[in-house]
Amino acid sequence: MTRVFSGVKPTGHLTLGNYLGAMRRWAAVDQHEAEALFCVVDLHALTVDHDPARVRRLSRQSATLLLAAGLDPELCTVFVQSHVDEHARLSYVLECVATDGEMRRMIQYKEKAARERQRGGSVRLSLLTYPVLMAADILAYGAGEVPVGDDQRQHVELARDLAVRFNQRYGHTFVVPRATRPGVAARVMNLQDPASKMGKSDDVGPGIVYLLDEPDVVRKKVMRAVTDSGREVVYDRETRPGLANLLEILAACTGGEPEALSGAYPSYGALKKDTAEAVVEVLRPLQERHKELCADPGHVEGVLRAGAERARGMARPTVDAAYRAIGLLPAAAEAETAGAGAVVTV
Ligand code: TYM
């Protein structure tokens, strides 16, 4: 059975982009068809200026929203990254396989580092090495597929490169993963700035639909979406990015095709109205379930505890194998359990 790994970073409130680009498919497809792990990747939230209390709050909220979106702990493993040491353990070893040039080429690093510098802040070293930790997240579990939105594809490519390189140098250890993406809405754009991704860490609230936005707030945001000059509703990402974004959101929410839907609308206003209602309807069950889960925080904690235990058991053998392959002496206890690894030849 294919193993699947993916995650969300608790740096802000989760958005419609996170849901349509990733989470929805995790619940609808991946957890049923694969041995799937979904993770709140809290270590990644420390790569930019952060408030510890907020990261804790957002980690809890992200985990609750993953369950509210339909992840079922009977079908998949839901856990918090920092509860499983293997991620950080493997990350260091992979840093010894990656190059600094590779890290500096990462688009997200370039964009985020430029933003930090513009604000007059300094860039944390962990922002540069972040994609290696992400590779460790994936490779530790032998995940063959990584369902993500388009913005994460370059990072998954790096995980592939590192897996291949490690296997070539030190012997076959890692499964080589590949990114999978949704058919539509793999890159939901900011409603106020259709040239930018709808990102949870951005400050431009009016263009971002959060999963916990009240229906009226959703309606207002969608109705005020920036569209392009022109009157005809056509689907063209290049010349009509605002309109294309709305059509993709509508298609993702209703199951249609953006191109086919464009013909059904006489005006921008009608399209916005239907898109707003479609988003409200998609979010409704998730918000109801979120409310129920918030009333029972013990349940969420229990899920995370059990999830971390299961995840640890899955990651440990691969990370131990990577340590041995790269030349680190097995710890005594491990050598005993590994049996064959107890005799070390130089
Ligand atoms: P993050 O937290 O930014 O996003 C979580 C998932 O949501 C997708 N996504 C989007 N999809 C479409 N349109 C958007 N506007 C949009 N915004 C976000 C992302 O592509 C992602 O799939 N580095 C990752 C977290 C991570 C991870 C991993 C993912 C860490 N380790 C290992 C997969 C495997 C991130 O920051 O995602």
Would you state the CATH class of the largest domain? Alpha Beta
Averaged pLDDT: 94
CATH superfamily of the largest domain: HUPs
* Each distinct ligand: tryptophanyl-5'AMP
What number of structural domains do the residues give?
A: 2
> Which band does the percent of strand residues land in?
5-15%
The parts where pLDDT drops under 50 for at least 5 residues are: 340-346
Q: In words, what does this structure look like?
A:
By secondary structure, the chain is mainly α. 54% of the residues lie in helices and 8% in strands. The chain has a three-stranded parallel β-sheet with strand order 1-2-3. The longest helix has 30 residues, at 297-326. The radius of gyration is 21 Å and the shape is globular. Bound molecules: tryptophanyl-5'AMP. Tryptophanyl-5'AMP is lined by residues 5-9, 17-18, 21-22, 41, 44, 134, 137-138, 146, 148-149, 151-152, 155, 186-188, 197-199.
